[in-house]
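Bumping with the actual sequence this time:
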Amino acid sequence: MDRGAIWHVWLPLIAGLGAFLVIFQSRSGPQGPARWIGLLLGLIGLGGVVLARYTLGRSFSWAPKATGLVTTGIYSRIRNPIYISGMICGLGMILLAGRPVLLAIFLVIIPMQVVRARREAAVLEAKFGDAYREYRKQTWF
């Protein structure tokens, strides 16, 4: 296992699971079904982020750059699974914490992620041209 996998896959998984465990075990937030739904959504979202980062491998970067066109695994269905999964994870955290003010922040982040995805798409289209355009036709977001 290389250092990239540790930093980009396993460390976020352990940190995310730890955060959900701490918040879930605390007595703050809702105690009914919303808490369990939040936990479920959060864990599904966290799993999606980790799976997407693992699938990207060395193609992962914080800034948009076209090192490779990944079209396998979760990327065969969703072009931006880290963004989608991150939003699901965030929504789960909001439900779990029971803090409505976080919903306002969440609603601001959604368009920011769309803009970010469009910037990435422009970089990938410039580098991979028709291959990226064909991939985009076969996938969602």
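The tokens above came from a reply further down the thread. The mean pLDDT is 88.
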